[in-house]
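quick q for whoever's on today - can somebody do inverse folding on this one?? i tried earlier but teh output was garbage lol. C-alpha cells:
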C-alpha cells in the first residue's frame, strides 16, 4: 500500500489496473528474494526509473473531432503545476484532479490564480525568463582583466606574466553571481511586486545591484532607501580552493537615459560580448530571435573568422569595425537585420557599463529596425529601442508564443495553432504578465494535446 501511494505521487496520477498488478508483482518478487529493506529500495528504484516518472505522458480523452486528445484532469494538474511552479502538483491540485474540478475554464482559472499567489510561482517565472534570455549562462562570462581590471580597482596586467592571477577570479566570481541575482530580482519584483506588465519588464529603470557590480552601474545609480535588502550565499573557487561567502544586493534606481528593462541588464549585455569588446551581432541576434521570434538560420561558412579582432588596440569604433566586417554582399542580407538592434546597445561595454565614447569617438547607437508588416522602428539608442519594443505587436506576440510553448512543453509550428492568436490579441491590449499566464492556463489550447498520441515532454 505504501509503495502504491508512492507510485501515485511519482507518476502524478492513479495507477491503472495493469500498472498496479505489475508493481505488486515486482514488489513480491523483490521481497521473495531478499530482506524487506532491500525489497523497498529496489521497488522504489524501479518506480523512479519508469517512464511516467521522467516524462509527462498519458492517454488523454479522445475529442469529438478526432484530431486531438483532451487531457485528463490528472494530466492537466501536472501540466499546470510544471507551467506555473516548475514542480509537481500540491495536495490541493491533486484533490481538484481527483474530484473532477479541473474540467472547466473557470476551474483552471481559479487554480491558476491560487498558484500565482504561491511563493513557488516566483522562482518558476524567474526560471522561464532565464531560459528566454539565456541569462543563467552569465556565470560563464569571462571579461578580460586587461580591459576591465582598472574598473574594479586593480592593475590591468600582472607584474610578472608568470604570476598566478588570484585577484581577478576573486573579483569576477561575485560580479557574475550578482549579475545573475540582479536579473532574478528584477524579474520577480517587476512581475509580482511592481507593475506586473511586459512594458515594465522592458522599460523599468529600477532594480538591484551589489558592491561587486556598483562599478558597472557608475555614479548615476542611486540606492533606494527602505527597499528590501537581499543576502545570498555564493560559491567561489580561487586558486583551486572553494569557499562560500555572502553577497548583499540592495534595491537601486538607475538613470532613465541609461537603463530600461531586461535588455539593459548587465547580465544580458555581458552575454552579448567578448572578453574585451561588445558583440553587436550577438546582441542583435538575441533581440531578433528571442524577442521578435525571427529565425535567422546558420551563418555562412567562415563568418566568425571575418569578425574584427577582440583587442584593445583596434582602430575606429566597435560599430565601424563590425559594419565593415559585415559589408560584403554575402553578409548583407542577414546583417542588415542583425546589426541595427545590436548597434543600439553600443553605449554599453563588454560588462554592461554605460559609455558615451568608444575609442575616443562619440558612440552612435541610432538606427532603424524592420520587424515585419508595418512595424518600422527608428531609435536613438538602446533605451529608446527597448521602449519601442515594449509596444511592438510582433514582440508582444512573440512573448506570448514563448510562454505558450513553455506551458505546453513543446515547440509550436510556424503557423499559429488554434487559440494562440486570441491569446496574442488579448496581450496586445492588456500586457499584464499574470493575466497572460492565467489566459494560457485556462485556454482550450492548454487543455488539448495536439495530435492523437501526441508527445509528452520531460520538463
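ok took a stab at it. sequence:
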Amino acid at each position: 500500500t505504501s509503495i502504491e501511494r508512492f507510485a501515485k505521487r511519482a507518476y502524478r496520477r492513479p495507477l491503472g489496473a495493469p500498472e498496479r498488478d505489475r508493481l505488486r508483482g515486482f514488489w513480491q518478487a523483490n521481497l521473495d528474494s531478499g530482506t524487506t529493506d532491500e525489497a523497498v529500495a529496489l521497488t522504489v528504484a524501479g518506480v523512479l526509473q519508469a517512464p511516467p516518472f521522467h516524462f509527462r505522458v498519458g492517454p488523454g480523452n479522445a475529442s469529438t473531432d478526432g484530431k486531438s486528445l483532451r487531457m485528463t484532469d490528472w494530466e492537466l494538474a501536472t501540466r499546470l503545476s510544471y507551467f506555473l511552479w516548475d514542480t509537481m502538483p500540491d495536495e490541493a491540485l491533486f484533490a481538484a484532479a481527483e474530484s473532477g474540478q479541473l474540467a472547466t475554464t473557470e476551474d483552471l482559472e481559479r487554480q491558476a490564480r491560487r498558484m500565482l499567489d504561491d511563493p513557488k510561482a516566483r522562482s518558476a517565472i524567474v526560471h522561464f525568463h532565464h531560459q528566454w534570455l539565456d541569462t543563467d549562462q552569465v556565470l560563464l562570462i569571462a571579461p578580460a582583466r586587461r580591459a576591465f581590471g582598472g574598473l574594479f580597482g586593480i592593475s590591468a596586467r600582472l607584474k610578472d606574466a608568470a604570476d598566478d592571477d588570484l585577484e581577478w577570479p576573486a573579483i569576477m566570481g561575485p560580479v557574475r553571481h550578482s549579475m545573475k541575482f540582479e536579473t532574478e530580482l528584477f524579474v520577480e519584483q517587476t512581475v509580482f511586486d511592481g507593475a506586473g506588465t511586459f512594458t515594465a519588464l522592458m522599460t523599468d529603470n529600477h532594480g538591484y545591484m551589489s558592491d561587486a557590480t556598483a562599478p558597472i552601474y557608475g555614479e548615476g545609480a542611486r540606492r533606494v532607501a527602505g527597499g528590501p535588502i537581499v543576502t545570498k550565499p555564493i560559491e567561489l573557487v580561487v586558486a583551486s580552493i572553494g569557499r562560500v561567502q555572502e553577497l548583499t544586493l540592495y534595491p537601486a534606481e538607475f538613470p532613465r537615459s541609461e537603463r530600461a528593462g531586461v535588455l539593459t541588464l548587465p547580465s544580458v549585455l555581458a552575454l552579448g560580448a567578448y572578453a574585451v569588446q561588445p558583440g553587436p551581432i550577438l546582441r542583435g541576434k538575441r533581440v531578433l530571435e528571442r524577442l521578435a521570434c525571427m529565425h535567422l538560420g546558420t551563418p555562412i561558412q567562415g563568418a566568425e573568422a571575418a569578425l574584427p579582432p577582440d583587442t584593445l588596440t583596434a582602430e575606429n569604433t566597435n560599430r565601424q569595425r563590425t559594419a565593415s566586417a559585415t559589408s560584403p554582399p554575402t553578409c548583407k542580407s542577414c546583417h542588415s537585420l542583425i546589426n541595427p538592434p545590436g548597434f543600439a546597445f553600443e553605449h554599453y561595454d563588454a560588462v554592461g557599463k554605460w559609455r558615451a565614447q568608444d575609442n575616443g569617438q562619440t558612440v552612435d547607437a541610432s538606427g532603424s529596425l524592420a520587424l515585419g508588416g508595418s512595424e518600422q522602428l527608428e531609435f536613438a539608442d538602446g533605451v529608446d529601442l527597448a521602449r519601442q519594443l515594449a509596444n511592438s505587436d510582433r514582440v508582444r506576440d512573440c512573448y506570448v508564443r514563448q510562454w505558450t510553448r513553455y506551458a505546453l512543453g513543446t515547440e509550436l509550428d510556424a503557423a499559429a495553432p488554434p487559440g494562440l492568436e486570441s491569446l496574442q490579441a488579448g496581450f496586445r491590449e492588456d500586457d499584464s504578465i499574470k493575466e497572460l499566464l492565467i489566459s494560457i492556463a485556462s485556454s482550450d489550447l492548454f487543455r488539448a494535446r495536439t495530435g492523437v498520441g501526441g508527445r509528452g515532454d520531460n520538463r
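fwiw Residues 167-193 form the longest helix (27 residues). also The two ends are 29 Å apart (CA to CA). so keep that in mind when u check it
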